[in-house]
Amino acid sequence: MTWTSALKQTARSGLTVERAKLTPLIAVRGAVGVALVVGGCLWLGSPVLAVSAAFGAFSSAIATFQRSWRPRPLLALAVAGGLSVSTFLGYLAASHTVLFVVLLGAWTLLAGLCWAVGPVSGLIGTQTVAVMLVTVTLPTSVLGALAHAALIATGGCVQAALIVLFPIRRWGRQRDALADALAAEADYARRLRHDPVAPFDPQPLMDARLASRVSPRQARRRPAQLHGPRTLAEQVRPVLASLADPVVGAPMEGPERDRVRELLGAAATVLDAVATAIRHARPVRLPSDAMDVLEVPVTGDMLTGPARRSATRLLSLLADAVEAADEPVEPTGPDTDGDRPHLLRPAVHRQVPVVLRAVRRELRWSSFVLRHALRVAAVAAVGYLVGTALPFGHGYWAPLASVMIMRPDFAQTYQRGVARFIGTLFGVAVGGGVIALFHPGQYVDAALAVVCVFLMYLLLRTGVAVTSACVAAYVVFLLGIAGAGWEQTVQERVVLTLLGGVLATLSYAAFPAWETSRLRDRLAEWLAAGGRYATAVLDIHARPAERRPRRVREALLDLRAARVAWVKSGERAGKEPVRHRGLSPAAEQDAESALNTMGRVTMLMEAHLPGPDAEPSPGAEAFAAELGPAVERAARAVREGGDMDWGGLHDQLAAWEAGAEGGGVALRAAGLLVDALDELARALNRTRR
């Protein structure tokens, strides 16, 4: 993709207004927190302190809207603490330009490294830089700096207190995550009726697992409906795939296939009913026609062999899901997940070593997080110096715009830059026009700022352009409280925002971290994870008495994470203005299809694991022993652009087929697995021609 095409595409994406589910009560609660802080400071007679305190309440509430499974009050307090520290340090250095620029660069570098922990941490770090730039322009002494820092922390405490005192839809995010996972299973069942090898996106299951991580205290208070259905949803997916697959399930045509389609449709109806019950905290309501389909016919079930076993297992899992979701929605004791009472979420202080390890892993030149941190630190320092040198005043708006739009990848940075500039133009035009025409006083400015905050919280998920317009108008009204003239505010805001966007754009062009160059590594990681998953499943088929289900589970989670990393990397690479480096778009698509097939085939083998008392399979053992090293060699070949050799696997498969009596699910699935690996080799070999 050329630079022109990439910029056009990202500009259109940034200006897109998305339809999103609005949360008016949560938006009202956040706006009330800002109103309480601003109104309290104005009542005490200090407009400057009102402006400073408003940033703390405003930013703390923004963090609570982010997709995090941490308690909302904790996020508000974390933001307030970071904002108050950054504000105080900024005040200490604000009178010395060189010292402040050094501090700004170092602090921005640390904030950029926060993206190694996760997007929520990265956003919190970005907000601390923004507040350091804004509040230190308000004149004060050292004691005044302490007062400003304390007020910012107070704003976060107010937001946290409001969340505790006025909770809205307790466990709502966890309910939505679990309901989305079950709804995704229902959609998968419907698609399998028409496409027996339909793909499945595991992201909803991954989100549900993250949402189920709780502290011991939360486990005692968690509603009963959130205990068991997630584990059942994990178990339903391979059973659905096994029932629909024409190789290990029912044939493609005939009465057995008709029965499979009926079962899949009824299963989708039941899973949707369970998802609705969990989402809205009410009993499960099942339609009678679905229940009739799930009953075994009086004449006997027409399914045979593996398909019959899959159908029996599916009926059992659906009954368990309905029973688990039909419990009273009352706080109860913790559930069971594997060999632990619940998925434990570490306490905050125990997260410190995890955070340090995550940051340490990114301290290498090839890391896109480190490059982002260096890039944003340099832009913040240069933007501050350039903005200060210009005759506009309030030069902090240039680095502020840069910091707020810059992200570790190219697409988001450019999308946010275009959207923020257009939104800022609209917001300052509206805010400046209102002030110019009506000349509102301090309290009216404060009320208008709170209205803008409410609109920003309400429309937060609709797009950057919309929220940037609300934020721009909010800043205009907020600075109007402190006596800033609207003409100067509009001029400064527009020109310096444009300058910040240009600096951010140039920085990425001069010091990029292209995702395209990482595609081979992502593909190799996905292949290696798929190999570990297949080997773990085959080991159980080989030695049923020595089964290690925990190993299979961990390998499956690694495979899902590797697949999601590949998908996200491919999406980012597709928007970059660079050509492929050894991996063409056609090869990407074919390789992705092959590895998806590899994962699906392994899942079919997992759905038909033998019991502990089953006979060992020497053929499966020999095949698994060859598969592990072969996949490791292939992963190295993918990274280095070499040839993949599956000759050993073909030999082991032929020996297994020669020694097997009547085959079996594992043997048939192993043949499909080898076919998928051959397709992967052909896809990558075409790229080198």
Automatic annotation (TrEMBL):
It is a multi-pass membrane protein. InterPro entries: Memb_transporter_dom (IPR049453). The chain crosses the membrane at residues 31-62, 74-92, 98-117, 149-168, 373-397, 417-438, 443-460, 466-486, 493-514. Keywords: Membrane, Transmembrane, Transmembrane helix. It holds the Pfam family FUSC_2. It comes from the Bacteria. It is found in: Membrane. Residues 383-505 form the Integral membrane bound transporter domain. This is Integral membrane bound transporter domain-containing protein. It comes from Streptomyces olivaceiscleroticus.
